[in-house]
Design brief:
Chains A, B: Its EC number is 2.3.1.46. The structure is a homodimer of 374-residue chains. In chain A, 32% of the residues lie in helices and 18% in strands. Chain A is an alpha/beta fold and 374 residues long.
Chain lengths: 374, 374
């Protein structure tokens, strides 16, 4: 599977059943869990070269390469194709890379809109709320299915980094290297505030129908679009918006002013909001934003104390213009790890692209990850 | 009218008629304009002690004191009562203070929801778009009505400061002192982006009904609430939210988690959104946010050149934690004035309260304004 182009093939596996339910941190269980994942590269005979990719809020299993039959000249590659591939930091010539869609998502893995085999219907808002630890429990079952004992590395940005952190706390001996990018061990009140407004936009949309919008053949499109437009502003930076859009607009004279989008930055946000409707589900958005709000692993001190003696090496990276998951949050995470005796190194990468920097390649970023994984 | 409590009495005046329409910068005219305003203090015999207050986006004419009959122990005073009153920076023992509701507003002065005498109906979205210069033209008519030639000072925060700046450009000889707080001569692309999302939330609400929601007996309450919740986050600062709310919440264990508001910061935003519905109109919100987006007086260089020889002294103030109208914007405004030979002094006040600082009293702020007005 090496070569210039990765061949991405989605696989599906059932990881929980009535006989072997996935017990959730909040007390409930899931009696049916399916996971969709992609893999790239080949597992070594010693099964010691596996790298696990944890995706962010709206990511999916298609982390790199092109799906079979896609034309690389027209199709977009997986969302982290800059990071994963032959000769790239997560080098598929060396590593066996596992990239699942997360629990609660809407791109193949079980989530609130998935058909519950017990009823033949989605569970909608009856789907239990999830903890980051539940996403990790699902990852662990996937590793068991693949018969992989230890991970050479777990790698994640944003919410993906939160999964990596939780995983090391839950299984301190299993992951050799943890790459945590643009993440947080505890969201700021402002971060929670933005997510709360996004949820308000979705849940107050008259077409939300108490979460059963699918039964009405609609989606809460106005709310979901507004949620994404707002969130997108927080994923970029003031300077990147300024550089790219400034005051460019369609209208010329004062007499052409209008309330509808006119400035280029408005058209851009409209586009971001519209395309999001086609690729993500509102219920998954509610569930996955919410589990980030509650994430606070070091508040559970008895749990965090299990890190004592943990040999996982952490590499923590933040970006100078990221104001949603800012450097202060990465520094706190690093200090919390160090306070428990864990080897953790933090660096801030200079980048104008805000939180989205973790998906891009500001100077020094990919090299830093590559060096750590060598 | 001096004394410990200001007696606030709203007055109403008709300032444009069919015979004397208000010609707007965009080319259209308003043939009926009513303005509601309050005054505090007494006009000197020489008519030279008038101070004009320009309010921000959602302000009104009730800038200071208590309305007649209100109990000061239970009622809230006017929105800038810290700034205006006996012995305060805008000292009503010395000055005759004029505080109108702005054109396009919804608190008495003509706006898109006002009844058009020609039809007996509101004009809704047929109301013409406004320029900051149109708000100023309305202010000028109010001064003419009050038979006041020159202003001792014009004072405004946020959009109010934009009105002050535009006024001096339009009438360089009329205002002796210009107090411009937390304002901008040209919004950032990010600032426009946030307002665009707010408008999207309102205009895409199914109860917007093309702006004619009043005919349906509804308001686009979901959209307007979301717009305000989001905007409110941008009016405060990350540090003020953190200090005040941190992760305080109602739920205790993992099994009490919920999608609905749980964290204190969420209840706070819900309250901000709900109370806004009762006090502001969606159409005014659209019109007034939009005129800020287009505001760019120094782009009209022939117009700005009229500042040459202008004797108005400017005091420009920004706040360290204001990220919506940040210090860079105040510095640019100051430099633009200085480049045209205008006396302008800028200072950044240290404050944790974000953009809303202009309504509060961080150390040094009120003293700075008081000194300038002495």
């Amino acid at each position: 599977m090496s070569g210039p182009l990765l061949d991405a093939v989605a696989q599906r596996v059932v990881l929980a059943s009535e006989d072997d339910p996935l017990r959730l941190r909040g007390g409930k269980s899931l009696e049916h869990v399916e996971v969709v994942y992609e893999t790239y590269g080949e597992l070594s005979p010693a099964r010691d070269n596996a790298v696990f990719i944890c995706h962010a809020l709206t990511g999916d299993a298609h982390a790199a390469g092109y799906r079979r039959g896609e034309d690389p000249h027209t199709a977009k590659p997986g969302w982290w194709d800059r990071m994963i591939g032959p000769g790239k930091p997560v080098d598929t010539d060396r590593f066996f890379v596992i990239a699942p869609n997360i629990l609660g998502g809407c791109s193949g893995t079980t989530g609130p809109m998935s058909i519950d085999p017990a009823t033949g219907e989605p569970r909608y808002l009856d789907f239990p709320l999830l903890h980051v630890a539940d996403l990790v429990a699902c990852h662990r079952r996937l590793l068991a299915h693949l018969e992989i004992e230890t991970l050479y590395a777990a790698v994640g940005g944003s919410m993906g980094g939160m999964q990596v952190l939780q995983w090391v706390i839950d299984e301190p001996g299993r992951i050799e290297r943890a790459v945590v990018v643009a993440a947080s061990s505890r969201l700021t009140a402002e971060n929670i505030a933005f997510s709360s407004v996004a949820r308000q936009a979705i849940m107050a949309d008259p077409e939300f129908h108490g979460g059963r919008y699918a039964e009405h053949g609609v989606v809460p499109r106005h709310g979901q679009k507004v949620a994404r437009m707002m969130a997108h502003i927080t994923y970029v930076s003031p300077q990147s918006l300024e550089t790219r859009f400034d005051h460019q607009r369609d209208s010329v004279g004062d007499d052409q002013w209008r309330l509808e989008p006119d400035f280029e930055v408005e058209h851009y946000l409209q586009h971001q909001g519209e395309t999001f409707l086609g690729r993500f589900d509102s219920l998954s958005y509610l569930y996955l934003t919410r589990l980030m709000d509650y994430f606070d692993p070091f508040a559970d001190e008895p749990n965090a104390e299990r890190l004592a003696g943990c040999r996982t090496r952490f590499q923590v990276t933040s970006f100078s213009s990221d104001w949603r998951f800012d450097t202060a949050q990465s520094m706190r995470l690093t200090e919390q790890l160090q306070a428990h005796g864990v080897d953790a190194d933090h660096a801030e990468i200079h980048s104008p692209y805000g939180h989205d920097s973790f998906l891009l390649d500001p100077p020094g970023y990919l090299d830093r990850v590559a060096t750590f994984l060598q």
